[in-house]
Amino acid sequence: MALHMPKSLKPDTPGATLRPRGRESFVAPIEAVRMDKTADATAESGSMPQRLAIDVRNVSLTFETADGKVDALSNVSLQVADGEFVSFIGPSGCGKTTMLRVIADLQQPTAGTLLVNGMSAEQARLARRYGYVFQAPALFPWRTIEKNLRLPLEVMGFSDSEQRRRAARYLALVNLTGFERKFPWQLSGGMQQRVSIARALSFDPALLLMDEPFGALDEIVRDHLNEQLLQLWDKTGKTVLFVTHSIPEAVFLSSKIVVMSPRPGRIIDIIDCDFPRDRTLEIRETPEFLKIAQRVRFGLRAGHSYDE
Amino acid sequence: MTSNAFVIPASAAGALRHHPLVVRYAPIVTIVLALIAIWYIAAVMMNLSLVRGGFEREETPYAVSELIAGTMSAERPLLPAPHQVIAAFVDSVFGYAPTAPRSLVYHSTVTLSATLLGFVLGALFGIGLALMIVHSRVLEKSLLPWIICSQMVPILALAPIFIVVLGAIGLQGLLPKSIISAYLCFFPITIGMVKGFTAPDPMQLDLMRTWSATPRQVLAKLRWPAAVPYLFASLKVAITISLIGAIVAELPTGAEAGIGARLLAGSYYGQTIQIWAALLASAILASGLIGLVDLTERGVARQMGIRP
After folding, report:
1. Would you say the pTM of this structure is higher than 0.90?
2. What is the CATH topology of the domain spanning B104-303?
3. Contact predicate A270/A299, CB 8 Å
4. CB proximity A183 to B under 8 Å
């Protein structure tokens, strides 16, 4: 009943022009759901009719190493609806990066099923359905910033004019217009990471996988990029999966927080985080924010004590 | 003013010491002068008994100064003095028409053409092998031992066999020499390029995979550019080796032209000065070739935006 109440949400998001035709349909209902606290329980239970961006069921991944088996992922299940911002948080070795890599078909699970946009992870990769942002910018040092941005477009066979158009648009999106002819080493770490985000967005995938993209950056730059990322998410309506070590970052960015624990890597808590999509850094001072952060911290600690 | 008169020369000497030309060339000039001095001393000592023997055979009385002068002007000294070598070099470079059989320019051109052809053949072969090794584990396992073995057999033993076999199938002149030169110089290129083609960061390779790039695209857009620094490092080694290969190929065949032929003739007739002049020519040739590769590398590096 309260599902479709827009509440304080703006009738149209400011960056709606950036959104490609035909994708809005998945975004709007999710926004309404996210805005409504009472609806969250139903959304979380997975009984909602909207399409799932990610559907992970009982996935396990075991590495064979010199000193025996390592359970990187143990019987993990997770559903993510289209347009959600999901953070994965947990100590090192809890499998959060592995989770992302499995979804990206960079690694194959040893058991379980996995659907990305309704297809297998490999199909989704071959159909170029996601953009991946790594811990480091991983720019190609011999290419200018513009050429770096155009690289995936070259690979995917976009026309030259379309490549140029998109490079300009996505550089503008991450506030780097004017740096087209610079080489990566001429940019700061934060700027390079912004280029890598623009590169992941350049072919307009519906899904964005981000593996600790801001881990190496200082607090101020990180805050700034977090805000930019939120705006971007709000503008484009993409589904974002975001790996982080930082509790405030996870709470600030996410619509859903997945707390993970190591040995074996597993999900120990999934927390909904229902701040408005156009949230600002100020919400970090609110009691609601601190309450969620506390729950995340509690979950992390529980995971640790299990281990010791 | 008068008190300053003493200061100015001192500061002028200081300025000279820090003059960029002095800073740049003083060390190398010092080394060259020291080497020449050592060379003169060695020439005197090595030729002493020869010259003394001459005097004693003729039973003419001699002074020490005459003896020393004699060591530096002998017609067939054990070790010719630097000025003798340079005089012979200048004479054989400028003293004859460039096509005359006594001209070092003529012989150098013959060797140079074999070197360049061998270098190109060796580079293509070396890069081709590296490509095969990088793309197939089976080929790596089966080819690499043979590649290493090929370099353990002394080329002086192989060269005559090559010439005879190739001569039997109708190949004569430039090509057999180039093939021997290529046989020697492909090795560092293969080793360097295997390293270069596997140089890309795992993250960059993963990125290409997330864009589902074809192996050909990965090669063209990632492995090749990443291998360029390795390519030039191995080309610099390879070009001097290919020069040595070309010279060695001229030795066992009784070639009529080329630096190798010049060395051989010199040793037949005890013309040590001629040998040294030919060695000087090959040294100049080698540094010229390395300089050329170096220049190309700098041009390419500038194009690729390598950090200065």
Report:
1. no
2. MetI-like fold (1.10.3720)
3. no
4. yes
